[in-house]
Structures are given as structure tokens and as C-alpha cells.
Amino acid sequence: MPKVAKKTPAKKAPARKRTTRVQRRKMGFMESIGHKLDQQAPLAAARAIDFGYIALVAVAAGAILIAVFGGKAASLPERLAAVPENSIRSLGLNVMRVTVKGGETLTTRDIMAALRDPRQGSVIGRPLPLLSAAELRGRIEAIGAVEAASVTKLLPDTLHISIIERPVKALYQDEDGVFYVIDQEGVVIRRVDATDHTDLPVVSGTKEPKLAMDFLAELRGFPVLYERAAGVTVIGGRRMDLRFKNGFLAKLPEEGVDAALARLDSLDAGTGSLASNLDYIDLRDPDFAYYKPKADAKKAP
């Protein structure tokens, strides 16, 4: 029998999935506004806070400007004093830093101690615009080592100090034997140990060392004598005894000091030859020179 081919059943196409179409309902006008407000609420709140702070600062700044520049009768310091401290603090205008320029021996502690107010305490944290630069400068210049100072207020929070220290020119020994370094004007800078600054001439015999410093300034006109000088003793508040490093002593007159120094210079004072034979030389008489031989000096043959 002839073979009969079997019919292969046709494959059915897969059924299409039904998709459900969701139709969005259009929002009404009021609903649309409410939706936008909900989305923008956090940002609006942050902006409101920023705006409120800016407004507060602006109001405080305006109050300060009115207090400072309003009116014609009051001076600027008086106007600044009238500004409420809380208004200035709200602006962040408080001293947070103190910078110092110049000065070799002064420490930051010295400067901060001078700036400290007896009633209000440290300058740190005080309102910068209310501080008096002139008053602070006066406190710093009251430090013995300071010759001059300037105070600058740098907004918003910095106080800058520039100082020039007094140059050390001599040692001063007071009546109690205490040593200090002094400047050319005889101003006491600070107390020191007796073994400090041994290269400097020593001033003694007076409560007013300026007289001796004036003499030392004149002595610099004789460089060799100045180099050999160990110190000056003020006698009776009127004249000087000049002591040399080798122990030799020269008694100088009250007047005609320059001529007496010229005589000393011609004698080569301060060298070993005079000191080995004489205790001192007296030049108080402009026409004669008196001297005292040492007791143990060798007699000439």
C-alpha cells in the first residue's frame, strides 16, 4: 500500500498579552498649584531661613550705620560707643585673632597681658569696632621694651599690632644693686641678671640714668676710649667718673668734659701702662692733672 504522509498540525501563534492602558486624569487648577507647592516646600523653607538671616544682618547693620553716622553733634568714638554691643556681636565682628609684627624680646603673652582690660578681661571676644586703637596703643607703649606701637583693626575679627622695641645701649645698676638694660634715653627696658650683657657699659650712682647716657653719647666721639670703657658712675648728680675695663679710673669735671676726654685720649687711657702704675687720674682741674700712684707700683730706679 502506498505510504500516506501524516499531516503536521499547524502551530498556533502565541496569544497577545493584553495591556491595560491607565488613563491619567488631568489635575484641576487648584490641585496643580497644591502639587507644585508640595514639591517646592523644602526649598522655599531653606530660602526663607536664608532670607531671614540676611534680613536680620541687614537690620543690625542698618542700626549700626544709623548710630554711627546719624547726627552731626557726636564724634565718631561717641557714636560707636552708642552702638548696641549685641548688634555688633550678631554681625560676628568680635576679636578672634591678635597678630604681632616686630619685637625681638617681647612674647605674645607680654602683648596680650598689656591688652587685657581690668574689668572686661582679655581682648579676645570683645567687639572689634568698639575697641579704642589709641587706648590699646597706649597700653602697649607702656611696656618698657616698646619704643613705639601701632594698632590696626582689621574687619571682621583681627587686631594687628606693630611694635618697635627700644635698642639696648647700656646696663643700669640701681641703689639696690639690681641690673636693668636701658636705651639711649635712659629708659629702663627690663631687669636682667648681673652676668647678662657684659659687653655693655654699666651706669650707676644715680636714679636718673639719662645724664650718664648723654655722657656716653659724647664718649662715642672718642672711639678708642669708648671701646675701653667699662662703665660710668654719676657723682653728686653733676659729674662722671669713667671706669675702664682694666680697672683704671678717670675723674672728669662737671664742665669742659670734651676737653678732658681729649686729654685722656692723648694719654692713651685704658691701656695697661697707666693702669699698672696709677689708681686714678683726676682731670677736674682744666689746667692740671692729678693722679694717685698704686701702693704696689714699682718705683723707678
Protein model, in words:
This protein is α/β, with parallel strands linked by helices. The protein has nine helices and twelve strands. The protein has three domains: 46-91, no CATH class; 94-165, membrane protein fhac (Ubiquitin-like (UB roll), Roll), CATH 3.10.20; 170-293, Rossmann fold. A nine-stranded mixed beta sheet has the order 6-5-4-7-8-9-10-11-12. It has a three-stranded mixed beta sheet with strand order 1-3-2. The termini are far apart. Residues 1-22 are annotated as: Disordered. InterPro entries: Cell_div_FtsQ/DivIB_C, FtsQ, POTRA, POTRA_FtsQ_type.
Quick take:
The chain crosses the membrane at residues 51-70. With 301 residues, the chain is α/β, with parallel strands linked by helices. It is built from nine helices and twelve strands.
Query: What count of structural domains?
Result: 3
Alpha carbon gap, first and last residue:
179 Å
The run of helices and strands is HHHEHHEEEEEEHHEEEHHEE
- Helix amount, in percent? 25-40%
Question: How much strand content do the residues show?
Answer: 15-25%
Output the number of helix runs.
Answer: 9
Mean pLDDT: 78
The outline comes out as: rod-shaped
Query: Could you name the CATH topology of the largest domain?
Result: Rossmann fold
Q: How many beta-strand segments?
A: 12
Main location: membrane
InterPro entries: Cell_div_FtsQ/DivIB_C, FtsQ, POTRA, POTRA_FtsQ_type
Protein name: Cell division protein FtsQ/DivIB
Subcellular location: Membrane
